[in-house]
Amino acid sequence: MSVHDHPPVLTDEQLAANFADIAPPLTNDYALLEANKCLDVPAFIKKIASGNLRGSARVILEANPFGHSCARACPVEVLCEGACVLNDRDEQPIKIALLQRHATDYVLEHKLKLFEPGAPTGRTVAIVGAGPAGLSCARELRRFGHAVTVFESKSQAGGLNTYGIAEYKLKADVALAEVEDILDLGVELRTGVTVESIEELLTEYDAVFVGVGLGSTKRLGIPGEDLPGVIDALTFIEHLKTHPYRDTKVGQRVVVIGAGTGAARPTCRAITTSTSSPNATAVDFASRRPRSAS
Amino acid sequence: MSNGNGAAAGVEVRTPLGNEVIPCDMVIVAIGQGERDEFAIPREHPKVFVGGDCANGGAEIVNAAAEGVQAAKQIHERLTNG
User: Is the pTM of this model over 0.90?
Assistant: First the structure.
C-alpha cells in the first residue's frame, strides 16, 4: 500500500481538532480577569514623576491589593520588566518593581488609608485561607459593604507571603503590615482555626470563598526520604522566617533536591548565608534539569 | 542513604556517567507543593468561589490577588442580583 492510498486513520472531526487554534480565545470572564490583573504601569510611574506618591500607590493598590509584596517578590524579569520596550533597544528595562515598591512603601510608612469599607449590606461571606487570594477577596468585599470573616489555620495571616517567600525577597513584617492594612477595613480574622467542612460554612454565610493554597511539599517516592536529616523546603523556609536566623539548623554539607526559583534557590541562598554553621556549607542541586546560573 | 545512626548521609543520583553518591548530612526537598486533600471543595456549588494556588495549581502573588478580586466581584454580583 503506497502512502497515497492509505486509509484515513483519523476521522474528519479528529483531524479538525488536531489543527484547531492552539490558543483558544478568552472567555469574557477570563478576559476580565486578565485585564484586571494589569496595572496601569505608565500611570503609576507618571504620578511618581510628578511627586504624587499617594496617587501612584492608589493606582497600584486599586488593581492589586498585594502591590507591596508583588513589588518585592514577583519575577518581574519575566513579567512587566521583561515586557518593557526598552529591552528591544538593548537598554535596561524601567525598574518597575522598585518604583512600585517606592510608591507602596510610602503608603505603609505614612499609614495612609486609601480605601474605605462600603455601607453595610447585611450580607456575610466566609473566606477560608488568609493568603493573598483570600485577603484580596476580603478587601473588595468590604469595599462593597459585605461582612467578611476570614478563617486561617496558622497563627498569623498572609499565607506564603508570611511563611513561605524567601526572606531576602519579602520579610514577614512587611507581609504582615500589608495584611493589617486590609484587616483595618473591618475584616474579622480568626487565626488558629482549621475549617473542616465548607458545607457547614454555607449554612451560616451567604457565600464562601476558598483560597487555601496548595499542600505540603510533594513526596519524592524514593527510599530514605523519611530519615532524620531530610526536611522539605517549605518547612525550612517557614522556620527561617519565624525564628531568629541563628536558630535554623543547617548541616555541614547539604543537598537540595530541586532547582526552582520558589523554594530551592532561596533555600540554597539561605544556607550559604546562614551563620548557624561554624564551617562553610556546601550545597548541591540534585535536579533532573541542567544546572544554570542563579 | 543513611549513616550508622540512621540519619541521612548521602543522596544517590543518576548522571549521564552512571550513578553517583553525593555525601551530605542534610537533605532539603524542594520539588514543589502537592494538592491539598484535607477537605473536598464543592467547586460547582453556586455559593462557593475558589481562587489562588488551590484554583490555578500554583502561580504568582499577582495571580492570587487578581483571582481574589475577581471572585469578590462575582460574589457581590451574586449577593446583589441573586
Answer: no
